[in-house]
Amino acid sequence: MITILLALFCLQEPVQIPLPEGIRHSPTLSPDGKWIYYFESMKNKPENFRKWARNEALCRTSGDGVTIEKVIELGDTRGRLHWAPDGSQIYLTRRVTDTNGDGEIGFGDGMSLTSLDPDGKNSKDLRSASPDSLTIYYTLPNGDLLLGLRDSYQGSTPKIIQFSPGKEDKEIAKGWTYYPIDSKIGIIRTLKVDQNADGKIGFRDMGSLSFINLESGERKPFEPTHVLRGPIPYEGGLLFSQLQGKEGKPPGWNDNCSLIQSDARGNNQTPLTEPDSIWIPIKALSGSILLHRTRGSQTEIGLLNNAKEWKSLWVAPEGKQVGFPWVSPDQKTILFAVLEDGNKDGNLIPGEDRSNLLKLSLK
User: Fold this and answer.
1) Quick one: how far is CA 170 from the chain centroid?
2) pTM for the full predicted model
């Protein structure tokens, strides 16, 4: 059965979306499948933007690249796209207002939460710009949004809130990241200790994870430690990447990971891969797992089946880097961005080097 399932994922060569040269990331399909949405750095930016501030925009193109439309400018932020449950609205965060009063717009300013029609019309701020830095984590079935809120982009008091327009914010938990498991249960990441012993608590300190019930507020510990990415739902349990130490030493930020399968509570852990790469679980598919894999300077995306057999879908050529892929709900289309050293400085830097968008069909 496993062999048949993998055979169904008959690979075609990825097709590059024919777009002019540009700096892009995070391609996704619209719910109706007619448009490819992506984020692009604009060549021009308002005069009051800081020197190193970017000006990103949400854009969309028809699958053939013939029609290209700018939907809305987001300012100095790395965009992420979220849809209303019925597909009628887009939700985004924007940094286009000088909230700290220094006369410039950049990462020291807060963000607004904006909704708009899929074509960019009827844009309105659901949460006006404030000193807070915002992240959208999840859209609930009732249309409420789970947001990450910090008092600044370097804020030390992060929290997760449930937001509904016109209602008072509901604080879910203190935490840096939210991983949805389903519409009622999620996992919160908190930072409590200086794990990497650098004298401060920051994003390199992975912290602890805990389950949270959105309805009751009940929290339970997630026992596995040194979790780099995930967890995501998988066959009634969970998948996550866990850092593995070398020669009996505690795991560090630069160590490799194993992909771990557990039950729904994080117990009964089983390694699915050796710690020979940075394994990032993206999505559970029919009979396999879509993964992003980094080995040294090489990045690739591929499938791991139930027999723990790795099948590469696409390997980034030398000097290029593949971003995290997006897979369509029907599991037939994968979209991803490929970064290349456009300025020939020997480095691959998102937001600075050009990138192309590719489409891969799974038949």
Assistant:
1) 24
2) 0.88
